[in-house]
Recover the amino acids of this structure.
């Protein structure tokens, strides 16, 4: 098993499918984040991340995503969303609770539950989980066309989203954009 | 009935979508079930080295990456005309058994459970995995999480990663396992056998001993008498990793077996104007429309079909459950003296648990094979690559990858028949049957309809590819009901 993370370790997860166009933006932000943290100094991480950070990429949701969060007090998830309420490339900082709680009472997909339902399941089972994962979303146009390129507006959002993650890492009460999340992502 | 052309390119592309058309009397004239498919995958693959395919294809789907990894590795073996050494095949099957254990556990408790353990008529708020845990208890909820972690652990040990394995390559595996790792997997296997038996006990207690559920399992509302398909070993037992594909008729008579590379001799694809997805059917029988019976080439590939085509299970505890399954649901022998055939789609949930037990027993068998820790895990390809087919049983149906390459091993063409595609026609038929039982004389029982339609397609454990990994993680389903004039009577939405 992977080593138990320390209390002060924040898990940053780039979520999405790297071969599904804009859906891969979470992975690209994770990549940029690793580069900036490794780089440090000028042009590197200007916020001097105060605590240990673990960066990972994932293409799953629901139970499997919840299981990946076990053992972390803090987690930041970066993902593409399609809300239709903002131009492509718009970056938002949210708490998971701010995302529409869809599927909490019902099955959320043909295969899995929503992350919110999975967290609700995990907590009474005494799984150590983040109180409320923070989320950085990038507005995108999500389709079902296979490809490893992002559209220009989403590509341009990578540094913005990466900075948002770094600022969240440096802040115990991470800033949260209010509302405006629309009702349904892909 | 008014003829209606449905444009498949709509704002709902990427979501499950059902169109129901009523006739002049307000009865169901027809239903259309549309599911999304990733586009452009073949184009994306062309020009890439075939050895990249096992890692690339497991990105197709966040639900069964292990199945694509294995089918791709086997197709790549075939492209290079190389047979992996026995220890490599054992390791692949061992990884795959760990994956099956996790996947079947998840389906039963998180997806099938709300239908059976909580019940189709329970309040909406209870019909979720949370409701299941409330019913069976927190202790079992904890075991479900433990079961998933154990299965992932097996995948992680052999596959290098817990989610998207990366170690199966043309000719075998990149590395073997140590004695310490073997012992860990064996211990997981013993635990898994107990867990699977406990799950069958729960099914027995909550479902089989309940009169209402028994009626659902034995009634006709979810029954279509179709052909069945599944990979079998030489003894006609199901095998998830390798074997020949056996096809059996609705009356139980075997139609034959074929090697995976011969799939184009057996399977043809029907194109319908209202969906991009094609409907595979048995060439020898022919396409007769969305109907069941021995003259219709519609077939099912699922846990239920794998039991129907098998003559038994390869492990002792699963064999006992196999016998109990058929003795309970189809006590009369079928054509040629084989066991009876079970056609009720809801029985797939029970069949899945029989397979869960088999996967658990197989974990122990493979982990205790004397060759499992051997270093002889790869036959390095030396031949000129050409063309190859790889087939495994994905949890949700027979999965085939077919690649063509140039002499440098660069992909020139790709064809895939994925688990859910096999079942597209029978799922559509089950959805229609469910709609017919809940719509009469123009009266739509909205709650019941949604639940019953869900139950119909969920028993197949269909995979909706790309829509499964996103935040917040819902898979919207929309049902549109049209009257005889094509006007919209009602739109029912779920999750959205």
């Amino acid at each position: 098993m992977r080593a138990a993370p320390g209390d002060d370790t924040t898990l940053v997860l780039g979520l999405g499918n790297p071969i599904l166009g804009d859906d891969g933006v979470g992975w690209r932000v994770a990549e940029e984040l690793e580069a900036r943290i490794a780089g440090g100094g000028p042009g590197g991480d200007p916020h001097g991340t105060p605590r240990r950070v673990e960066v990972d990429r994932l293409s799953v949701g629901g139970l499997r995503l919840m299981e990946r969060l076990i053992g972390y007090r803090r987690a930041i998830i970066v993902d593409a969303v399609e809300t239709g309420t903002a131009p492509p490339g718009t970056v938002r900082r949210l708490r998971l609770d701010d995302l529409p709680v869809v599927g909490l009472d019902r099955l959320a997909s043909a295969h899995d539950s929503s992350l919110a339902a999975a967290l609700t399941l995990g907590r009474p089972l005494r799984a150590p989980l983040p109180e409320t994962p923070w989320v950085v979303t990038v507005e995108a146009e999500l389709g079902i066309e296979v490809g490893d390129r992002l559209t220009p507006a989403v590509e341009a959002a990578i540094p913005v989203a990466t900075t948002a993650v770094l600022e969240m890492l440096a802040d115990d009460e991470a800033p949260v954009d209010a509302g405006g999340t629309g009702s349904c992502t892909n | 009935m008014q003829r209606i052309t449905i444009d498949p390119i709509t704002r709902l592309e990427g979501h499950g979508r059902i169109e129901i058309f009523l006739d002049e009397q307000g009865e169901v004239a027809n239903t259309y079930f549309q599911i999304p498919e990733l586009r452009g995958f073949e184009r994306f693959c062309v020009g890439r080295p075939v050895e990249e395919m096992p890692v690339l294809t497991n990105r197709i789907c966040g639900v069964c990456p292990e199945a694509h990894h294995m089918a791709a590795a086997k197709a790549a073996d075939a492209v290079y005309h190389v047979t992996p050494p026995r220890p490599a095949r054992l390791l692949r099957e061992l990884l795959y058994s760990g994956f099956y254990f996790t996947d079947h556990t998840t389906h039963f408790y998180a997806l099938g459970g709300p239908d059976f353990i909580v019940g189709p008529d329970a309040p909406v708020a209870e019909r979720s995995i949370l409701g299941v845990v409330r019913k069976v208890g927190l202790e079992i909820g904890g075991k479900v999480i433990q079961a998933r972690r154990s299965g992932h652990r097996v995948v992680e040990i052999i596959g290098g990663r817990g989610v998207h394995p990366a170690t199966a390559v043309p000719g075998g595996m990149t590395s073997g396992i140590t004695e310490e790792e073997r012992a860990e997997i064996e211990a997981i296997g013993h635990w898994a056998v107990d867990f699977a038996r406990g799950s069958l006990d729960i099914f027995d207690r909550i479902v089989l001993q309940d009169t209402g559920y028994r009626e659902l399992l034995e009634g006709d509302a979810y029954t279509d008498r179709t052909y069945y398909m599944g990979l079998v070993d030489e003894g006609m037992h199901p095998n998830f990793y390798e074997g020949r594909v056996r096809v059996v008729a609705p009356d139980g008579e075997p139609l034959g077996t074929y090697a995976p590379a011969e799939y184009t001799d057996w399977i043809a694809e029907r194109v319908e104007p209202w969906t991009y997805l094609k409907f595979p059917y048995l060439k020898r029988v022919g396409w007769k429309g969305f109907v069941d019976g021995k003259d219709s080439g519609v077939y099912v590939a699922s846990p239920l079909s794998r039991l129907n085509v098998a003559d038994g299970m390869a492990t002792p505890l699963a064999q006992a459950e196999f016998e109990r399954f058929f003795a309970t649901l189809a006590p009369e022998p079928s054509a040629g003296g084989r066991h009876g055939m079970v056609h009720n789609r809801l029985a797939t949930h029970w069949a899945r648990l029989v397979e869960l037990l088999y996967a658990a027993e197989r974990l122990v068998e493979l982990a205790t094979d004397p060759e499992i820790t051997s270093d002889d895990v790869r036959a390095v390809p030396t031949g000129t690559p050409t063309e190859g087919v790889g087939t495994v049983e994905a949890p949700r149906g027979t999965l085939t990858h077919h690649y063509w390459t140039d002499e440098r091993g660069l992909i020139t063409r790709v064809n895939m028949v994925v688990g859910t595609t096999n079942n597209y026609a029978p799922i559509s038929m089950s959805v229609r049957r469910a709609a017919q039982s809940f719509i009469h004389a123009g009266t739509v029982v909205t709650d019941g309809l949604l639940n019953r339609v869900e139950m119909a397609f969920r028993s197949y454990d269909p995979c909706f590819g790309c829509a499964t990994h996103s935040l917040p993680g819902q898979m919207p389903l929309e049902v549109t009901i049209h009257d005889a004039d094509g006007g919209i009577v009602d739109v029912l939405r779920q999750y959205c």
Observations:
- Chain A touches chain B through 61 residues (CB under 8 Å).
- Residues 29 and 158 of chain A are 6 Å apart (CA to CA).
